[in-house]
Write the structure tokens for this entry.
Amino acid sequence: MLRDAHDGDLHLPMYSNSEGFLDFYIRPSGEAKESARLTIDANANGELAQHLIEIRSGDEPDEHMPLPPAKARWQPRRNARIRPGLELDECLTFDNEELLRRDYPPRPDPELVPAAFDAWRRAVSAPAAAVEPHVTPHPYADHTYATMNSVGLGEEESDNWSGFALASGAGTYDWVGGQWNVPGVAGIELNRRLTICSSWIGLDGNPGEDLVQAGTDTECTAGHFPGSHVPFAARTYRTWIVFIPIHTGEQVFTDFQTRPGDLIQCQVYIANEGGMPSLSGSAAVFYISNLTTGEYINFPVPRGSVSVRGGQAEWIMERPKINHIPTDLCNYGIARMTTPVAQRVDGAHVGYFGDDTRRISMVTDPQRLLSSVSALDTAAMEFTWHAFH
């Protein structure tokens, strides 16, 4: 946990990978004469430690505060398993059973959803490193159902979701896919102690039922340099899953590197024993690729006795909740989600825009718009930030 050493008010949860490294960002709004002192409260296997970090904001380095060293992206560990890239003929001729056996995600139909197929082909044509999933619960972020209010034909409002959903009734969808760039933060969020925005895809989500989702978070908290009015923003980014009601909150992949601008490709589906999408299958599968770093996770979660309804597929920007209260929405500016596609239980792939489409705007009472979404074309949508709360 990152804290302000002066008043302890600033706090930001962070997760190190299995080698003990963690990533976070500090962005000041200007120069400051005084240094900010931050502490990292570390907890490893029940052992507690505290690390002090001192930062100063200025245009010129000096002997007491030199430039930080250049830092390259984390490289895959030496023992990482590398999945080879597929040739074009393999992309076209391997069936989904063969693809799953080789640890590739299912293939979108090249005729029904050509843009999604092209994005999938680009992803699987490059070598990729498998990441051993290490999952830990987030201390407070809770991704929950959305209560929808209909405001017109195909138009809905929610206090925590914005995006598009295909709503066709139980037993319709067993697989959903899409890709996006991890949103950054637009500007310094003055006087905002905690803001979060979550980009995700998923199945279902009506209150009282299941919700199967995977996505990325951008989380930001703000502080000030002591003795000045110069604010700074501390930010962190992460990849997560949630399977309600099996999970009670966000489950974070601690070893899966995520940074602003990274291109994430994701599939979420219910799978049978052979790994093929099927609503009657025994597991929810979360397949997440970071196409920027060349890493991927293939993570099944046993379904147990939970019934997955398969009545809705979604592509969403969300503000999570803490103790059932939505957080402030991080100023993500403008963000896009591309190649949104779902699979019906008969095996047919469909795009996100059709007769069953619901467009969802994030609105608080009384009628304050926080986040909106628009259709750019049949293969892309664009989210726009409007307000914190």
User: Anything to note?
Assistant: The mean pLDDT is 90. Residues 114-124 form the longest helix (11 residues).
